[in-house]
Design a protein that fits this description.
Shape: globular
CATH topology: Purple Acid Phosphatase, chain A, domain 2
Order of helices and strands: EEEHEHEHHHHEEHHHHEEEEEE
Radius of gyration: 18 Å
Largest sheet: 6 strands, mixed
Oligomer: single chain
CATH architecture: 4-Layer Sandwich
Structural class: alpha/beta
CATH class: Alpha Beta
Length: 319
């Protein structure tokens, strides 16, 4: 039985720089949009929150949902986190959603509102919801909307209504600006793209603070670039002979044993385990845009399982 502690600080992201990567055979094409002027962040959570005991506690990690509310609900139910009425039913479970709940599909508004509501409901049952910032959230905060669907625009009554909702003081934008980029629960790091060795020494709280500051007024900061935590793909795509030593350096610098990432879609629809279980890639294409491949990871005392509609699969655990 292993005992872990979560030291979590919710630092957000302010006004951003936009970029995205075209998902074609793993290729990436970062693009930069004109940054939105920085504004005060509304309701940004304070840092220095107390530790949360993890021993015996269930942790669920869920990948990219891309504005597909029906598939998000189905996936949350797959993990036992929503009841028939759509309310939190996970008890003291900790849910970590690794970003990219916007774009591609029509339901950005409803999906963000669902995450907002579950973030309020879970603590009443002893649970915790930790949504993380993905590159697509950062893009939306910047006004880079190349991947916004027509249905999503229509849901806001058009571009102006959407722009107001995602503004720094808007109901969605202010909340998104309060999300962490990286979280660490015991010896497991959660992040959208990945944490490379050059960034790992900053730790989860430091990197989240760096991303926030960069999105507010340093759009050219490397923390927002292709090697930063919102965009990194090399830990998933490089040969293990290269990726695993880099991953190990990052984990050592963060006093961790495992990293769980989204962002790089697994076209097989299955969770990818690399480097002896030290890396789990959990973007299985949950949204209909990518094939509606429901999946999540369950962790309890360091033991990892993949959850699929057809059942559970034990995953290799790092030593």
């Amino acid at each position: 039985m292993r005992v872990g502690w979560l030291w979590w600080t919710l630092a957000g992201c302010g006004a951003p720089v936009a970029s995205d990567q075209v998902r074609a055979g793993g290729a990436s094409t970062p693009l930069v949009a004109t940054p939105v002027p920085a504004a005060p962040v509304a309701s940004a959570p304070a840092s220095g929150a107390p530790p949360v005991a993890l021993a015996g506690r269930r942790i669920i990690a869920m990948g990219d949902l891309h504005a597909d509310l029906p598939m998000a609900i189905a996936n949350l139910r797959l993990a036992g986190l929503l009841d028939a009425a759509g309310a939190w039913s996970g008890g003291d479970t900790i849910l970590v959603q690794t970003g990219d709940i916007t774009d591609r599909g029509p339901d950005s508004k409803e999906l963000i509102e669902l995450m907002q509501r579950l973030s309020r409901e879970a603590p009443a049952a002893g649970g915790l919801v930790l949504p993380l910032l993905g590159n697509h959230e950062a893009m939306n905060l910047l006004g880079d909307w190349r991947y916004v669907s027509d249905g999503d625009y229509a849901d806001f009554g058009g571009p102006e209504g959407r722009r107001a909702a995602f503004a720094p003081t808007g109901p969605l934008g202010s909340w998104l600006r309060g999300l962490d980029a990286v979280a660490q629960l015991g010896d497991t790091v959660f992040v959208h793209g990945g944490v490379g060795p050059d960034f790992a020494a900053r730790g989860a709280a430091g990197l989240s603070a760096d991303v926030r500051a960069a999105l507010q007024d340093r759009p050219d900061d490397p923390v927002l670039g292709p090697e930063g935590p919102l965009w990194l793909r090399s830990l998933v795509l490089d040969d293990e002979a290269t990726a695993c030593p880099a991953l190990q350096r990052s984990l050592e610098r963060m006093a961790a044993k495992r990293m769980i990432v989204g962002h790089t879609t697994q076209r097989s629809g299955r969770i990818l385990s690399r480097c002896g279980g030290a890396l789990l890639a959990i973007d299985t294409g949950i949204s209909s845009h990518y094939g509606a491949h429901g999946a999540a990871v369950e962790l309890r005392d360091g033991d990892a399982w993949a959850l699929y509609p057809e059942g559970r699969v034990d995953l290799e655990d790092p030593r």
